[in-house]
Amino acid sequence: MNFEEMQKAWQSQEAAAKLTMNADALLQLVRRDEQRFRATIFWRDAREVGVAFLLSLYFAYHGLWHHDGTDGLVGAACFGVGAFMVVDRLLQRRKQPVSNDSLKVCLETSLGQVNHQIWLLKNVLWWYLLPIGVALAIATGVSTWRTQHGGMAAVMTWGALVLIFFLLYWGIYWLNQFAVRKNLEPRQRELETLLASLN
Q1: Model pLDDT, residue 31
Q2: Which end of the chain has fewer surrounding CB within 10 Å, N or C?
């Protein structure tokens, strides 16, 4: 059989031919993928919460030791971010699939978790970067003003530090948005396609 005959045979196949798959095998694949996704999110959150609480302890200790309320403000902001992540994690834990759920319920739960992660990362500026950034800007401004005894030099030093923080925060925000585009949105589309094929 030459290439043209093979091409004609291929084109003569029914266009709407569908690939069939065992539903139990697909359910196992979806569950395994979901477990991997949850483990990745758990360890990411564990690292973030651990760092947030360590920083809150450091800044609280430093603020008490040096009688500096602005360090306490940074510590409170770090603690608030860590607490937000813990509460969010506990609320999302109630929405995990049960082992005897159907394929459709499992896919809907997985899609809900992916949508929530997309929401978190798209709004990382408001619940993560801004609280800590504002506290750092205030602490840096007060510290700079005290050490330079005010004046234009203090304002310029504070401005330079704020610019450095801004660039760092912009990089963190960009990385989060890149993760949404590269990892989460393709996963979201796959789950939506699977759900639509079930209907």
Answers
A1: 83
A2: C
